[in-house]
Amino acid sequence: MTATATTPAAVTPRRPRRKPLGANPLGILFSAPYLVFVIAIFAFPLAFSVYMAFHDYFFTAPGFEADRPFVGFDNFRNVLTDPLVWRSFGNVGIFLLINVPLTVVLSLVLATALNRIVHARAFYRVAFYVPYVTASVAVVAVWLFLFNGDGLVNTLLGPLAPDPSWLVNSGLAMPTIALFVTWKGLGFYDPGSTSRRSRRCRRSSTSRPRLDGAGKVRSFFSVTVPSVRPATLLVVLLSTITGANLFTEPYLLTSGGGPDGASVSPALLIYQRGIQQGTPDTAAAIGVLLVILVLVVAWLQRRFVGGEGR
Predict the structure, then answer these.
(1) DSSP 8-state secondary structure symbol assigned to residue 55
(2) How many domains does the chain divide into?
(3) Distance CA 268, CA 289 (A)
(4) 192: pLDDT strictly greater than 80
(5) What is the Cα–Cα distance from 131 to 140, expressed in whole angstroms?
(6) Backbone dihedral angles phi then psi of residue 259, each to the nearest 5 degrees
């Protein structure tokens, strides 16, 4: 008799079954409240704004049903042919061109200065946050006192003071607002965290000999600035997003976008059209355009400032 050898069948490894809630369901449970918050406060209003922008939408009394027909791109056509809308986007462009670079530079300069302070460092960090946490109405009152026609700034400038004055001058109103927002919001961008990044980089760079005889300025631009690039990108993105939604400052400082629309912003125009003038469909169209513009600018910043794709 001859024995026949049998080869064992190849064993196919079982693929691990995917869990419906992921590898860590507890994480989803912890993030669920914030997810609900995002959907209720951001996602749903944005989706409803898109619906309003494509319909002849208007406010009615509670419980009253009215026909709101689909109008396609008519609201966008009306918005894009409105000179005030174009001016509002131009105003916020001027604001961002002043506010964003100033915020980035001052955050980095303050972070570097904090590294050199030995005593009372905590006091200076708290001082950066005081304007940001102070009520806007109180701070605006101080700036109105400083920059009105017979204010302290014009008194110090004397014959060099602008006429008309700062906040009633069509060429200086938006730059003045940009300076105010930069000063007030600087604490929001946490120069302390940038300072900690810069300090860690400084310690690591000074622990080895300086290369090629590089001085302090060369070391700052070659070592410190690249090391805080992620923080810089975050500051650029946040200042762009918050600046594009500028509302409170022109509303309070220039009485609603004056003089003659020189300081009106898209967010302020949305309020005027949607609430004061009762055309929420037009206001929604402006809001949709603003969201698209901010997304495009943020993508460009991530690509060129953040170095994506390199």
Answers:
(1) B
(2) 1
(3) 14
(4) no
(5) 11
(6) -80, 130
Residue 134: its pLDDT value, please? 86
CA 163 to chain CA centroid, Å, is: 32
Q: Is residue 34 domain-resident?
A: no
Q: How confident is the model at residue 122 (pLDDT cuts 50, 70, 90)?
A: confident
The average pLDDT across 79-84 equals 95
E strand or H helix at 89, and its extent? Answer: helix 83-116
Are the C-beta atoms of residues 252 and 137 closer than 8 Å to each other?
Answer: yes
pLDDT at 207 over 50: no
Instruction: Examine residue 157 and state whether it is found in any structural domain, yes or no.
Output: yes
Residue 41, domain member (yes or no): no
The H or E element containing residue 220 is: none
Q: Write the single-letter amino acid at 60.
A: T
Please say whether the beta carbons of 177 and 99 come within 8 A.
Answer: no
Q: How far apart are CA 201 and CA 119, in angstroms?
A: 21
Q: 173 is written with which tokens?
A: 């109103």
CA-closest candidate to residue 190, choices 133, 270, 255, 137: 133
Going by pLDDT thresholds of 50, 70 and 90, the confidence category of residue 107 is confident
24-57 pLDDT per residue, tens: 777 778 888 888 998 999 899 999 999 999 999 9
CATH assignment at residue 134: 1.10.3720.10
- The C-alpha atoms of residue 84 and residue 269 are separated, in whole angstroms, by 9
Q: How far apart are the first and last CA of the chain?
A: 72
Whole domain around residue 164: which residue ranges?
74-207+215-304
